[in-house]
Amino acid sequence: MSNNPNISPTVRPSVPSSKRYSVYTAKRLQRWSLTLMEYSFDIKYKPTKKHANADTLSRFPAGPDPNFKDDDSIQVAYIEA
Question: Which domain of life does the protein's organism represent (predicted)?
Fold first, then answer.
């Protein structure tokens, strides 16, 4: 990574420290924080309305692929299993 801090947009604003998480969520957050500690970045809140471009791409129906053959995928699944 470069010396410039990266900016990571987030969909949710910061939550108060008094918020209680489930044990599983707290452990997952701890693991992520340990993983991300080695990087230098700033987190800025970005409202959902400004995420329309990514949201549109993730929800846009691609339709069926005419080149896809079900037989091939079934055979591969049997070979890998």
Answer: Eukaryota
